[in-house]
């Protein structure tokens, strides 16, 4: 099964993808995570995209589609993909069709996380992750069980994303409204879209997604 999680910054795409990886053995393909990894290791692509990401704008369609194709090629034929943060433009949606078809895959579901944009700034500015294993936390909604200690790997160091500030979040939301939301009708016309209430608590969002995948 191959699915897209679609929603604005902070909607919970990464949170829900991580849960599906644990529950169903699917593979999370987050272009945001791939680009951050490229930056961290200082690859030519990473250096090219850094300023664009920090401004909250979209990097080029070609770069992200290449990353997605490469990542799919590393997956087992029976593993399902969760596209998280991709596609984000009509051109990327078109590329994804070609990328999947070339690998004998197709899309099963496009799940839109419906959220109230006003709440997202809070979600994003409160977000932090374990510097060692990447587990996600939030100042108010999900603190580590033991203060300053990662629940999963026990590390004591945490980090915040440079684009997680109120100003950049507004640009990211505007990019979503202008370039990403308009791709929904493409998938709607193909009968692929289901909507979940992304404002519900994390467990009930997961339950809504599981119900769609089990249909
Ligand atoms: P990317 O990394 O994809 O960021 P984004 O789309 O802005 O989304 P986020 O990762 O911020 O949010 P999320 O939906 O994953 O939310 P999360 O689960 O963490 O992209 C970053 C940048 O890379 C882009 O701006 C662009 O420059 C570039 N880029 C990436 N892909 C690209 C592409 N395809 N094309 C071009 N450029 C691209 O949740 C957020 C917080 O809320 C967390 O703290 C979490 O704990 C909390 N939370 C989650 N769910 C709930 C809930 N139900 N209730 C309460 N709190 C919750
Ligand atoms: Mg994310």
Helix-strand blueprint:
Elements: E1 3-6, H1 13-24, E2 27-30, H2 31-40, H3 44-54, H4 61-73, E3 81-84, H5 90-102, E4 109-114, H6 117-125, E5 127-130, E6 136-138, E7 158-159, H7 166-180, H8 184-188, E8 193-197, H9 202-213
Parallel strand pairs: 1-3, 1-4, 2-3, 4-8
Antiparallel strand pairs: 5-6, 5-7
Bound molecules: BIS(adenosine)-5'-pentaphosphate and magnesium ion.
BIS(adenosine)-5'-pentaphosphate binds near residues 35 and 163.
Question: How would you describe this structure in keywords?
Answer:
single chain; 215 residues; alpha/beta; 5-stranded parallel sheet; 3-stranded antiparallel sheet; 9 helices; globular; binds BIS(adenosine)-5'-pentaphosphate; binds magnesium ion
Describe the structure.
This protein is an alpha/beta fold and 215 residues long. The chain contains nine helices and eight strands. It has helices spanning 13-24, 31-40, 44-54, 61-73, 90-102, 117-125, 166-180, 184-188, 202-213, and strands at 3-6, 27-30, 81-84, 109-114, 127-130, 136-138, 158-159, 193-197. It is globular and about 45 Å long. The model has no long low-confidence stretch (mean pLDDT 97). It binds BIS(adenosine)-5'-pentaphosphate (AP5) and magnesium ion (MG). The site of BIS(adenosine)-5'-pentaphosphate (AP5) has 34 residues, from helix 1, helix 2, helix 3, helix 6 and strand 6.
């Amino acid at each position: 099964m191959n699915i897209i999680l679609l929603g604005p910054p902070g909607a919970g795409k990464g949170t829900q993808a991580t849960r599906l990886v644990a529950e169903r053995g699917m593979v999370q393909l987050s272009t945001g995570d791939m680009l951050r990894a490229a930056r961290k290791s200082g690859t030519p692509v990473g250096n090219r995209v850094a300023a664009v990401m920090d401004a909250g704008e979209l990097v080029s369609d070609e770069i992200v589609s290449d990353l997605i194709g490469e990542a799919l090629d590393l997956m087992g034929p029976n593993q399902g993909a969760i596209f998280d943060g991709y596609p984000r433009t009509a051109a990327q949606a078109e590329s994804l069709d070609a990328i999947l078809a070339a690998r004998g895959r197709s899309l099963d579901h496009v799940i839109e996380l419906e959220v109230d944009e006003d709440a997202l700034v809070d979600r994003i500015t409160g977000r932090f992750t374990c510097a060692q294993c990447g587990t996600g936390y939030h100042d108010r909604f999900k603190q580590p069980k033991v203060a300053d200690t990662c629940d999963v790997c026990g590390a004591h160091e945490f980090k915040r994303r440079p684009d997680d500030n109120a100003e950049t979040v507004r640009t990211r939301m505007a990019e979503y409204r202008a370039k990403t939301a308009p791709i929904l009708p493409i998938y709607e016309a193909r009968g692929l879209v289901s909507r979940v209430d992304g404002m519900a608590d994390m467990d009930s969002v997961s339950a809504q997604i599981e119900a769609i995948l089990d249909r």
